[in-house]
Design a protein that fits this description.
By secondary structure, the protein is an alpha/beta fold. 19% of the residues lie in helices and 32% in strands.
Length: 161
């Protein structure tokens, strides 16, 4: 299970929508692992926006930039927990290039796809969540998503309730 603080989800949306142009974007969710295996999940502490080739219908992070986007992991004892990228329209499936360009091909890896370049500020329920299994990427059914990833509140202000 990957826990994403609401501030981190909001940061992805704000960054995806703040940049000019209708292009696909990509970010990585890094954090503290819950156990020794990628399947154990963890808690997101850091959002990494790599330098990527981004266009209307495509995104790609070359090997040098992928390495650069991961240098902080060892330094802070973090692991890459998931990736988020956007698509141009409402479709949130995983294309062939999405499969090939994912940050990991290890079983248990998660890839979240935001519709409409993320411009509609989608929630997790509006997005496609894909799990890497031994034989390839699989879109999680809506009722499966909560077993793999959740967005949690970052602040609870109960003073006036």
């Amino acid at each position: 299970m990957i826990h994403i603080p609401a501030w981190a989800w909001r940061q992805v949306l704000d960054t995806f929508t703040a940049t000019m142009g209708m292009v696909q974007r990509v970010a990585f969710l890094d954090g503290v692992a819950a156990g020794p295996s990628v399947d154990d999940g963890g808690v997101v502490t850091t959002v990494a926006f790599p330098h990527a080739d981004e266009s209307e219908g495509h995104w790609e992070v070359d090997s040098h930039e992928m390495s650069r986007a991961g240098r902080h992991l060892h330094l802070y004892g973090l692991v890459r927990l998931a990736q988020i990228h956007s698509h141009p329209g409402p479709w949130t499936g995983h294309s062939g290039p999405d499969d090939d360009l994912a940050y990991s091909q290890s079983p248990g890896a998660l890839s979240i796809v935001l519709p409409t370049y993320g411009l509609t500020c989608p929630g997790l329920g509006d997005s496609g969540v894909h799990l890497r299994e031994a034989d390839g990427w699989r879109a999680l059914e809506h009722d499966e998503v909560r077993g793999y990833v959740r967005v949690l509140p970052s602040v609870l202000d109960l003073r006036y309730q």
